[in-house]
């Protein structure tokens, strides 16, 4: 929880500003056992357990306090961070999508929720495709337990990872190791403006939801 110890907190407890070198936090997201924040200066900070390298520090060592993420994202201007159960996504100012953490393993080819074409884990932020991969720039994303949703500037929806329960929106339960566009006919050819992904690990169920430009909700 960013407090330099593993003690549970029964009430909201301030994480000292000096943990973030005095930066103002503008965005926060939490996964199963890890947290990520985005500062006003656009630096990304991570802490918690590092299963599958989900902290992005090129190892699987946990961090008890917020630790600045270096590498490629240290040189980019990050505008969005999203946490899955054991993976992280970030979108930078040039609308490039980055992913790291769990790739879903190698069973049956892996879930592939990082969108990198395999089920391998990534210990550092890794670029997902190129602008031409999505047809236009990625503006926002959402992570479930083992699947990912991406919304582009043109309002198209792309999904990847585990297709369990049909959460990818392709009329089947197949996994997608690479970002795959959901046919616009399923949304009346409207543009997508928002997406959310969730899961219930107790009953092994996952789900997705999107909102169109007309304010219609699909789930």
Order of helices and strands: EEEEEEEEHEEEEEEE
Strand proportion, as a percent range, falls in 35-45%
Largest sheet: 4 strands, antiparallel
The number of helices is: 1
Can you describe what's shown?
With 219 residues, this protein is mainly β. It has a single domain (17-218), classed as Methylamine Dehydrogenase, Chain H (7 Propeller), CATH 2.130.10.30. Helices cover 2% and strands 40% of the residues. It has 1 helix and 15 strands; from the N terminus they run ββββββββαβββββββ. It has one helix at 131-134, and strands at residues 25-30, 34-39, 44-48, 63-68, 78-83, 87-92, 97-101, 122-127, 138-143, 147-152, 157-161, 176-181, 192-200, 205-212, 217-218. The strands form 4 sheets. It has a 4-stranded antiparallel β-sheet, with no helix packed on it. A 4-stranded antiparallel β-sheet has the order 5-6-7-8, with no helix packed on it. The two termini are 32 Å apart. The model has no long low-confidence stretch (mean pLDDT 88).
